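Render this sequence as a predicted structure.
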Amino acid sequence: MNIDCTGSGSPTVILEQGGGMPAIGWMKVQPQIAQFARVCSYDRAGYGWSEPGSMPRTIPRLARELKTLLGASGEKGPYVMAAASLGGPIARLYTKLYPNDVAGLILVDASHEDQQKRAQSVQPPELIAENNREVGSYQRWERLRRPFMLHLGIERFMVHFTQQSRQMPQLFWEEYLYLSQKPGFQETVASEIQSLPDSSSALHAVNLGDRPLIVLTAGKVTFTPEPFLTNEVEDKLRNAFYESQAEQVRLSTRGKQIIVPDSGHVIMFERPDAVISAVREVWTDARAAH
């Protein structure tokens, strides 16, 4: 597995990327955090420069692999964990499994374990039927990912990179395109997404206690055009999204929500300063406590 640690200063910040994005997704954030803390980004197995891992790619397996990776790399806890999108459930479960390892968390427009169920509950039957249609491997992948695209933000992730590529360094764009086409990458992402609902019961039991927690929430929640996606359905999906974000704030007695009004799902690219500020705040609180 590939891990990249820079900077100095305890506690170390661990960056957990979202679904479909290698560690380079933190390229606008990590150098700035490294100015005041030690910070590590890494590629989950099957992503980026890491070798593929065992299937299925369940949330508990991902949390355990992170524990093994940090131990093998010699990094010392406790850590502050900053997790984006699908990385949120991984960081939360890691905290449950290894409570002494985690001193604080930043959830960056993080996924909720029940979001597929909630999204499907407000989708019209025609769209659900289309999602359930299986015709070949590509269609099965589309069927699996589509409910999440509406609510999880992966589609917004991909659309952002396509539309805003001129704003990204050319080296990033070339590396991202290369890494996203490596063998097994799509299967890895699909397996991670599929495992999220199955982890619902374990994630429901997570209590972050009194750890400092900041939930960064995108203020611009937009959707990819769909023939059955009316304004009414979009509003219901948007409300469900904000409800799930508020629930995550209540996971800690010191939870705090910051809505970033001018950013969509990829806050680490659209408003990296908001992520850096939240990390610094939680890191400072955690440092004082330890």
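Summary. The chain has a mean pLDDT of 85. The CA atoms of residues 191 and 277 lie 33 Å apart.
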